[in-house]
Design a protein that fits this description.
By secondary structure, the chain is mainly alpha-helical. Helices cover about 80% and strands about 0% of the residues. α3 runs parallel beside α5.
Length: about 150
C-alpha cells in the first residue's frame, strides 16, 4: 500500500481534512465556553447554572459547519479510497484530492467567519466536482461487475 502513490496522496489530504474537523470541534467547544451556552444540564451546572443550558446562534453556526463537514468529508473518504484502487494517473488524482481539500477549508473559513456570499457556496460547489468525478469513474470501472 505504501507503494501506491495515489493512496498516499489520498491519505495525506484525508488526514488534513480530519485534523480540520478536530479544529472545528475545538472551536465549537471554545465558543460554547465563551458564550456560556451548554447542550447538557450537567455542563451548565458546572459552568454557572442551569440558565446556561441553552442554545446560542454562534455555537449553532459552529455545529452546522461541523455537520456539513461530516456530510461531505465522510463520503470523500469512501470515494477517495476506492478511487485510489482504480490506478488513476497520480497527478490527476492529486488534483482531485487537492481541490476537495482546499474547497472544504475555504468552506469552513467562510462559514465560521461569515464571509460574504457566495464564498461558502462556491467553495462547496467546487469541492463537490472531484467527488462527482471520482464517483463517476468508480461507477464506470465497476459497471461490468454489477
Amino acid at each position: 500500500m505504501m507503494e501506491n502513490t495515489v493512496f498516499m496522496s489520498f491519505t495525506f489530504y484525508s488526514t488534513i481534512l480530519i485534523l480540520k474537523m478536530y479544529v472545528v470541534a475545538i472551536i465549537t467547544g471554545q465558543v460554547r465556553l465563551r458564550k456560556k451556552a451548554f447542550a447538557n444540564p450537567e455542563d451548565a451546572l458546572r459552568n454557572g447554572g442551569l440558565q446556561y443550558y441553552r442554545e446560542d446562534p454562534d455555537v449553532e453556526r459552529c455545529r452546522r459547519a461541523h455537520r456539513n463537514d461530516m456530510e461531505n468529508i465522510f463520503p470523500f473518504l469512501f470515494l477517495g479510497a476506492i478511487y485510489s484502487l482504480l490506478d488513476p494517473t497520480p497527478a490527476v488524482a492529486r488534483i482531485h484530492f487537492f481541490i476537495f481539500c482546499v474547497g472544504r477549508i475555504i468552506h469552513t473559513i467562510a462559514y465560521l467567519l461569515r464571509l460574504k456570499a457566495p464564498t461558502r457556496s462556491v467553495a462547496y460547489s467546487v469541492a463537490q466536482l472531484p467527488c462527482f468525478s471520482m464517483a463517476l469513474q468508480i461507477l464506470l470501472a465497476t459497471t461490468p461487475y454489477w
